[in-house]
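User: I'm curious whether this sequence folds into something compact or stays loose and floppy. Could you predict its structure so I can see for myself?
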Amino acid sequence: MHHHAPNPRHPRPDGPLRTALWLAEVGLPVLPLREGKRPVGNCPDCTRSACGDRPTMKSAGPCVCARPCHGWAAATTDPTVLTSPAWARPWAQAAAVAYHPGGAGLTVVDLDDAVAIAWARQSLPVTKMVVTTRGEHWIYRGAMQSANAVRPGVDIKSVMQYVRWIDPGTGTMQPLPDVVRALVVKEPVPVPVRNPAVVPRVPASGAAGPCPHRTPAFLERGIAMAVQSITGAPSGVHATVFRMFLAVLSAHGRCGCLTDGHVARLFAAAQARGESPRHCTDAWANAVTALGL
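Assistant: Here's the prediction. I'll summarize afterward.
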């Protein structure tokens, strides 16, 4: 499904629920926000942040609702859910609307002050821009792991995050650039001893031959799926990281197609879930050893 940014010429509905229904029509998963930009609990257990306002997934936070109740995990484009009796009270209490950018395949670079904006204008491709109370939101097409304070005044909001809706913004949305993906790496990614970028090609036949991948998209899908699995793992992050490293190396480690950029994306996803650079390096080395690379 292709998600489109709201049309600035489309009349903006009045009221949080009407705005939410309009945004859902154009593919943005939405949720209600109360004062202070905090999500409104959709059940009694989550009223007034009793559950801690954490994403509602299995083992993702203190909320133990039977299904997603509020926050980014409850964001939806389904009008029957948005207008259901369970959501009536939250919308009545809502002061604003938020959306889950990662759920729409988007990434928001949240620039919190003039210094951050000046940096973005020098360092990032110009894209769709929304003026906020203190700064700007730069919106790119493409999802990634979220991270706060990647540099002074700059947050990355995409997967497992929500962003307050303000207005459609101006400009033309551009593809998510690598320079933004690289911002989530808090420190230089260690280069494993057996880096897949320098692993020689070892076709099954034992003879030199072309890369077996049908198209570059095959490799890209593999990396994207591994990143998504790590980012969305509800529990057992250590095991998931190793399993995804193993899967990527098993499929792509012998043909020489993997690059430092691919490894950096996998490491960044793992670090965004709390894994240390050392653990990433160890997990990668163990996967290399397990496969005999």
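Summary: The radius of gyration is 21 Å. Residues 199 and 256 are 6 Å apart (CA to CA).
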